[in-house]
Amino acid sequence: MGAQGPPGPPGSSERLRFRYTKRGKIRFTSQRDVARLWERALRRSGLAVAWSGGFSPRPLLSFGLALPTGAESLGEYLDVRLDLGERAVDDPSGLPASLSDVMPEGLVVQAAAMVDDGAGSLQQDVASCAWELEVSGVSAAELTTRVERLLGSPSVVIRRVRKGRPVDDDLRPAVRALATIDGAAAGWPDGSGTCRLRAELTTHPRGVRPGELLEGLGADLVLARACRTHQWIERDGARWEPLTTSGRPPDASAPHAQERAS
Fold first, then answer.
1. How far apart are CA 262 and CA 101, in angstroms?
2. pLDDT at position 255, please?
3. Per-residue pLDDT at 6
4. Which long-range contacts (CB under 8 A, 24 or more apart) does 33-36 make?
5. CA distance 102 to 222
6. What CATH topology corresponds to 15-120?
7. Where are the chain's structural domains?
8. What is the C-alpha separation between 130 and 3, in angstroms, rounded?
9. Does 124-240 match 15-120 at the fold level?
């Protein structure tokens, strides 16, 4: 178990990367509050976490792409910078269980591994995210038609607010894949009267949130549930997740073409 992808430059690592879930009621906790939960858990763990300088020192934690409040995730990531003057972490394999024990329900630490200091930051390296969405407001047939229309459109303009001003942005280049899916296959409860989508959205130069994707599909759609399932790093025609668990092998294929709904 460890970070996937090309190795960084030789030398001592001073970053410890964690993978964790955010599911259930904890999904309504903000990113700032999740950071506080991690700070408390790391203090209890006894890890030699490095701190910033200045009048208000803080532990040096670097979170990945922010998860919208209310959304769930099967794989979130955090880099913790360690104090190299302290005892090194020889085997981080026991950390996930011990940290999960002091986390609230739904926030489960899945994996931990050292990362070469020359590796890029999570926010810079992650190129796309995969989502499973539960939506209401239209029938499954109508949703399929709208998905096909969006994928076949050269541009899909939505209104966003940037620096306090409304601007028009083209959503289409950020939608790498989009399809309606069978609810049972996605693990959603049956009989809810909702439809399901699977999407892959790019993160650069500007990320797209699930709510913005639904705006491109129609203003009458309501987002009932969202779950980020994967975060992908891409380089030289291959892609992988920032840190995998033993049950989730990396995807060796290059980014796939747009997938039309069946």
1. 43
2. 39
3. 39
4. 34/63, 34/107, 35/61, 35/63
5. 35
6. Alpha-Beta Plaits (3.30.70)
7. 15-120, 124-240
8. 19
9. no
Whole-structure pTM value: 0.83
Q: What DSSP line would sit under the chain, residue for residue? A: ----SS---SS---EEEEEEEE-GGGGGS-HHHHHHHHHHHHHHHT--B-B--SSS--B-EEE-SPPPTT-EEEEEEEEEEB-TTS---S-GGGHHHHHHTTSPTT--EEEEEEE-TTSPPHHHHEEEEEEEEEEESS-HHHHHHHHHHHHH-S--EEEEEETTEEEEEE-GGGEEEEEE--HHHHTPPTTSS-EEEEEEEE-SSS---HHHHHHHH-TT-EEEEEEEEEEEEEETTEEE-SS--TTSPPP-SPPPPP----
Which architecture does CATH list for 124-240? 2-Layer Sandwich (3.30)
Phi, psi of 124, rounded to the nearest 5 degrees: -80, -35
| Both tokens assigned to 23 | 């599911």
- The amino acid at residue 96 is P
CA distance 57 to 138: 50
Residue 49 structure tokens: 């976490």
Per-residue pLDDT of the chain (262 residues; tens, 9 = 90+): 344 443 333 334 488 999 999 999 999 999 999 999 999 999 998 888 998 888 888 899 999 999 999 999 999 999 999 987 655 566 788 899 999 999 999 999 999 998 887 778 999 999 999 999 999 999 999 999 999 999 999 999 998 887 888 889 999 999 999 999 875 555 555 555 789 999 999 998 888 999 999 999 999 999 999 999 999 999 888 999 999 765 444 444 433 333 333 2
